[in-house]
User: What shape does this take?
Amino acid sequence: MVDVRLQDAVGPGKPNHPDDVRTVQRLLQQNAGLLGANIRPTGEFDAVTANSIYNFQRRVLRMLFATGIVEPRSETLWQLAEMHPPRLLAGAHGGIILAPLTGSRTLSEDDYKAAAEEMDCEVRVIKAIARVESSGDGFDAQGRPIIRYERHVFGSLTKHQYDIGHPFISSRMPGGYSFPERDQYARLQHAYALDQDAALKATSWGLFQIMGANHREAGYGTVEEFVRAMCTSARVQLDAHVNYVKSQRDLHDAIQQKDWSTIAFFYNGSNYRKYHYDTRLQIAYEQIRK
Assistant: This one.
């Protein structure tokens, strides 16, 4: 297991302590197939190491202005270590420890019916939202809540102070969901190491993908309480969804009336038409049997 901590920066004109250089070289070697180079962990900052850092930043990170420098806790270091093997790097800096899954990871028909009665809507509407938001499963193979990290929300919450150094984690623009093609938890852990509260609030959680920023509407006083609850069971995720809907009158009305556009707006923002969320909701509803 490679130690990902650096004492100082590695790159042209940097201190290039042998242990730091060796760490970076080992991480580069793990990605040798992407870089087309054989990097030996010699501890000496040589031309092969320099070129490999530049190539990683250009080819993999798609950086417009590659620096060839790996700073401690930088985007380049995080992504080098995340590419292979996948790890939760922020754990070494006080990363997230998730609460265990203690209840069922699936919902019963009775669960759906009880929620529909409380919101005075059709069961199929609730199922359609779950299908579009999370493919109908609130937990991944490891028993963790399904999440989606939103870099533009994190950027806004942190006044964009991390945009330049961490563009995949903080930005004025949404996106970055599929690159790098790794677990969303890697991005969340990275953000959590920078700002714990903002990271949790910038992530949507569970079967209905409720944003952490909406924890009060979901029935929780703090985002930490909300996240812990979302880890425990699908039923708890459903209860949070009911609370969230009932706290938003326009959304509640839309769910009762099957107003797909308004539902899509609440869950996906003003760009919902770009991704056809309203259409996808209606199609999902029509595909679900009564």
